[in-house]
Amino acid sequence: MNDVMARQEVTQARSSRAIRRLRNLFVIILAAFMAFSVASDSELHPSGAGILSVQTSSGLIVVEGPEQQPWIGSFGSYFLCTETGRGLTIKKIRYESPVRPISVDLWLRRVHKNSSSIISTRGEPPNFLDPKTGSWLDVGGEYAAFRPGLRVTRPCSKSGKGSHGFTELIFAVKVGSRGGVIRKAWIDYEIDGNPQRLYSLQLRWVMVLCGDEVRGIYDENACGA
């Protein structure tokens, strides 16, 4: 597990907005079902509530695939918490994709004490692969499929610190030889006491799974020639 970056290191790397080539890093993810849909401009909801946070900034994450097709890449390090301590309910998660994956599943990883986070890897929960050795990885935490109606009450001030642990959102993305890209994602949520209004938090990390239709889209060095 020496390829897993500590959560503090992940935060520092993401703040630099550098393009990451994560050929040898692995990540953890859990599968979700009916709450993930393609986004369109007409579906965007009001934003700016400032309550829900995933404690990350923006950038580009690239995962190169194996020769065997299709394959699954997992992306994590989205830590769900509330900035103000006010409770909220997640209603839906949407995404925008210029190169559509075969499928996208969402998982939650719950950790009860401070631990390493997930960046990206091949495979999906609970079967993750070390790309160097091809061996299975045993990554700690409790996994469950994301469902609409998820309650978030953990304050961001305590998320991932000491014995408080964290709740991590993970994307498990299945692609074929074409590859796939999730350019943006949105988490739609309601704030306790205000169920009439739906807010939206945008996830600005671009998730890239290399393939024939992905090469050169974002950076000439992102995927092999």
Mean pLDDT: 76
Strand content: 35-45%
Largest sheet: 8 strands, mixed
Share of residues in helices: under 10%
Query: Care to count the β-strands?
Result: 17
Which regions are unreliable across 5 or more consecutive residues at pLDDT < 50?
1-45
Order of helices and strands: HEEEEEEEEEEEEEEEEE
Give the structural class: mainly beta
Instruction: Please give the alpha-carbon distance between the first and last residues.
Output: 29 Å
Count the DSSP helices: 1
Rg, rounded, reads 17 Å
CA-based shape: globular
Structural description of this entry:
By secondary structure, the protein is mainly beta. It is 4% helix and 43% strand. The chain has one helix and 17 strands. The strands form three sheets. Strands 1, 2, 4, 7, 13, 15, 16 and 17 form an eight-stranded mixed sheet that branches. It has a seven-stranded antiparallel sheet with strand order 11-10-9-5-14-8-12, with no helix packed on it. The chain has a two-stranded antiparallel ribbon with strand order 3-6. The protein starts with 6 loop residues before the first helix and ends in a 16-residue tail after the last strand.
